[in-house]
Amino acid sequence: MDFPQFDILAISSALLLVTTFGVVVRRGFLDWLVAYRYQAIALSAVTAIIAYVTGIWEIYIAAALTLAIKAIIIPKVLTFVTQKIKLDVKTEENPYVSIRMSVLISAILVALSYFLVQEITIKSDAVVAAYLPLSISLFLIGLFIMVVRRMALNQVVGLLIIENGLFLFTTALTHGTPLIIEIGIFVDIFVGVIISAILLVRMSHTFDTLDVGKLESLKDG
């Protein structure tokens, strides 16, 4: 592996990780959405880099779909949802874990991901070595965000980060799946976001809250 290629892989990995931490350090949903958009753009660039390094042209299409659906369409849909919900859910006032502690735990999850990959015997592949631990980091951080955020609307962003991690894991490890499968996955993601948006709007109108803790107390009552 030559140094220019190594630099590109390392820089793109760092950029994607920084955008992920941008979600962790924000409290407001709209700020999270902006950070997610930047993450989607970085993921699209990483996908294009994988296409360039491997020489598989179908991955360029996946990169374009990532940019269009995840960086443009999904943020617009979720922004539209926040306008339909009359509740004040744009800022998480009382998360289960503080921002400082969230950053620390996320850093530990990243370190754990790289440690786990080092313990696994993988083939000598620059793409796998660069992006496999990163994909696991995204998955774990997305799962962590879903657990520690109280607002159901904000937890959707964590779910999207988990999906980004799974997408990067598949792309890096297999160097792309057949195009028809890629398109099906993107359609499935988009439909899932639409359904989640509809459910969130109905929840806000029915229970006058999207706080998971309050919804659980209603169940207990």
Explain what the structure shows:
With 221 residues, the chain is mainly α. It has one domain. It has 8 helices and no strands. Helix 1 runs antiparallel to helix 2 and helix 1 runs parallel beside helix 5. It is globular, with a radius of gyration of 18 Å.
Structural class estimated from helices and strands:
mainly alpha
Poorly predicted ranges (pLDDT <50, ≥5 residues)?
A: none
How many domains, in number, for the residues?
Answer: 1
N/C terminus separation? 61 Å
As a whole number of angstroms, the C-alpha radius of gyration is 18 Å
**How many E-type strands?**
0
Number of helices: 8
H/E element sequence: HHHHHHHH
Query: What share of residues is helical?
Result: over 70%
Q: For the report, how would you describe the main beta sheet?
A: none
Per the principal axes of the C-alpha atoms, what is the gross shape?
Answer: globular
**β-strand amount:** under 5%
| pLDDT averaged over residues | 77
